[in-house]
Fold this protein.
Amino acid sequence: MAATIWYENDGDLSVLSGKKVAILGYGSQGHAHALNLRDSGVDVVVGLRPSSKSVEFAKEQGLEVKPIEDAVAEADVVMILLPDQYQAKVYKEQVEPNLKPGAALAFAHGFNIHYGYIKPSEDHPVFMVAPKGPGHIVRREYAAGRGVPVVVAVEQDPRGDAWGITLAYAKALGALRAGAIKTTFTEETETDLFGEQDVLMGGVNHLVEAGFEVLTEAGYQPEIAYFEVCHELKMLVDLMNEGGLNKARWSCSDTAQYGDFTSTVVDESTKDRMRYQLKRIQDGSFAKEFMDDQAAGAPKFKELQEKFSHEKIEEVGPKLRAMFSWNNGPAADADEAESFNGKIARTQVQ
Ligand code: NAD
Ligand code: MG
């Protein structure tokens, strides 16, 4: 079945006129949504903790900023752009008690709705506009007159107007310039987690480290191993983005292609382990493990972060990356760094 994709003419901005949109959070996604919607003529209020460092920053950008409770109380649409693990608590304590009857609730990732950590009452439309890129790119592309594609979904539609609001929101974000693909909360959440665990991070990161260990354990110099199993990855991924696997293969030597075609590294047993991971995503056990740990103060998460920050490849990585003079800034340019709110440019895998 071919996907449904919506473009610029499919969204009607007037759906949001006379309505107030509260953006909760001013991080990677929050700042981009707030600024893009505001610049599209939408009446935006940013909801933040009064102690948040972002309050001043959002005000400097000319945005109206209020405590979360107050922003929610006056909003017709509430977009929740807080870290996924904190959304349920904020929803219960600060959003739900202040939500106007019939106000729409929006998300940029389906996690909390899909796994039932947030259960809005039936009178609220619930929709998702999830950009397929980090927030600073969502902002940069909008400012350049382009847009980052999104996936969109509707979970609750009590009045029959949820899709109209969703597409108006996506248009105001600049996303319909690129395209919005119709999905569901279930599909977005499960495939997003799968991508992270099995290919993008859980796949590639471990593959790189394993390759580095095999080469260095066999006596090769770490500097050389780094180049071969890590540095060159970017060039290959750039080619994939431009022209898919075929272009990536075509631009490599015949020797490389033959080695690729005959490699035994990824096989049916790898797919079996992917299916195992997928099952844990589908039955909710991955989400439960993550959220239980977060609720306990994230002891396991912190232990793993500490453990994985000492992988062998990072003993040599910093020295070699410094050899690339054009590769040593946190962001590509000053505007981008600024729009990212002073954070190190963290290109979150999405
Ligand atoms: P982030 O960590 O960059 O920003 C979160 C914001 O929430 C910050 O302003 C922070 O100050 C605030 N915050 C944190 N804890 C809070 C609390 N307890 N109470 C109130 N405010 C709090 O988050 P993000 O990466 O923008 O992610 C937001 C949502 O967007 C998530 O659902 C995520 O899955 C989704 N998403 C992110 C990306 C991405 O590339 N970053 C892409 C698509 C979707
Ligand atoms: Mg993702």
User: Anything to note?
Assistant: The two ends are 24 Å apart (CA to CA). The beta strands are 5-6, 20-24, 43-48, 64-67, 77-80, 104-107, 126-131, 150-156, 180-182. The first strand starts at residue 5 and ends at 6. Residues 49 and 67 are 6 Å apart (CA to CA).
